Amino acid sequence: MKVLVTGAAGFLGSHTAERLLLAGMEVTGLDNFSDYYDVAQKRSNAEAVISRGAEIVKMDLRNAEEYQKLDRDFDFIIHFAAQPGISGSSTFEDYYTNNVLATRNLINFALENPDLKHFFFISTSSIYGLEATHPETAVPNPASDYASTKLEGERLILEQSHSGKISTSVLRLFSVYGPRERPEKLYAQLISCGINNQPFKIFEGSEMHLRSFTYVRDIVEGIYRALVRHKTLNGEIMNLGASEEYSTLEGIKLVEELLGREIRLEVIPRRAGDQNRTAANIEKARKLLDYNPSTSLREGLIKQIEWYKQFEDLKIMEFENQLL
Question: N or C: which end of the chain has fewer CB within 10 A?
Answer without folding.
Answer: C
